[in-house]
Design brief:
The chain has a domain of 34 residues. The chain starts with 14 loop residues before the first helix and ends in a 6-residue tail after the last helix. Helices cover 41% and strands 0% of the residues. The protein is flat, with a radius of gyration of 14 Å. The chain is built from two helices and no strands. The longest helix is centred in the middle third of the chain and has 14 residues. The protein is an all-alpha fold.
Length: 54
């Protein structure tokens, strides 16, 4: 059975939020320039090792 709580008793952040936060951080830190296209869905899936549903 999957554990829903971490060792600290706090629910882990859902994968989709982790992906969103990762992309947002790259935007804020200048990894993606203004008006630059973001990576494709396929590239994001591969980079973050998540399924399309995440």
């Amino acid at each position: 059975m999957e554990r829903l709580l971490s060792d600290a008793g706090v629910m882990p952040m859902p994968l989709f939020k982790q992906v969103k936060q990762g992309i947002w951080q790259k935007i804020l830190h200048g990894t993606y320039a203004p008006h630059q296209k973001l990576p494709s869905e396929r590239q994001i899936i591969k980079h973050y090792s998540v399924s399309r549903m995440a």
